[in-house]
Amino acid sequence: MNDDSKYLPILENANPRVKAIFESTAIHKQFSAGTQLAMEGAVCHYFFVVISGIIRVFKLGDTGREITLYRVNPNQSCILTSFGVLSQTPFPAFAIAETDVELLMVTAADIRDWVDRYDVWRKHLFENMTIRLNEILNTIEKVAFQRLDARLAEYLLSHFPADMRILKITHEQLGRELGSSRVPVSRILEEWENDGAIELARGKIVILNREQLREKLHQ
To answer: Tell me, what CATH number does 34's domain have?
Structure first.
């Protein structure tokens, strides 16, 4: 018997029969970075758990502008996939393999059966939905009510540990993270470079003065 249940923390103390059913049913799938894993409007045929790698879930507007809703990291499952599987409704966003990923996949029919039969699966899915819904609402609140420069400062500070000065990311990628486009992001970054807070290079940002960024966050 394999030990695939270790990739889903909720199964750690589950009934041995529940773990055995999962381990005998789940299949391994690997996808390379950049693979489109889900399209908006598509039917959710599988529930999955990430073994390794990162999946980015995002919305795409009519103008082509993207906003990242959340990421699915190792030992996590995707809330929107879970919702689509349980409600048998189309996937409401897009999902892409941000890195090479390995997944454990279970058919929609199996996961619906398990949710009906086992408390541990109901607990996992509802807890996951609560956590992810809060993340999505937080993202919507920031986009709706927080200025772009403040969101940009917050993003840089949260992704720059105290001992790290260089972040490898393009202006276009930053725009996708913040629900904006490249042009306004570039304009703000160039202003901050002129102020001496950061230094810009191709595909990366160097922090020169963290305190200046904190001030911009609260202006």
So the answer is: 2.60.120.10
Tell me whether strands 66-72 and 55-60 are parallel, antiparallel or unpaired. Answer: antiparallel
| Residue where one domain finishes, among candidates 86, 121, 144 | 144
**Residue that finishes a domain, picked among 92, 116, 144:** 144
CB atoms within 10 A of CB 210: 15
**Conformational region of residue 203, where left means phi above 0, alpha means psi within -120 to 50, and beta covers everything else:** left
Burial-class residue 138 by CB neighbours within 10 Å (0-12, 13-18, 19+): exposed
Whole-number Å distance between alpha carbons of 82 and 186: 36
Q: Which amino acid is present at 73? A: N
Per the structure, the complete domain to which residue 126 belongs is given by 4-144
Parallel/antiparallel/unpaired status of strands 166-167 and 101-107: unpaired
Q: How confident is the model at residue 2 (pLDDT cuts 50, 70, 90)?
A: low
Based on the domain organization, do 90 and 182 belong to the same domain? no
What percentage of the chain has pLDDT greater than the value 90? 57
Q: Are residues 33 and 79 in the same domain?
A: yes
Determine the pLDDT at residue 158.
86
DSSP string, 114-160: HHHH-HHHHHHHHHHHHHHHHHHHHHHHHHHHS-HHHHHHHHHHHHS
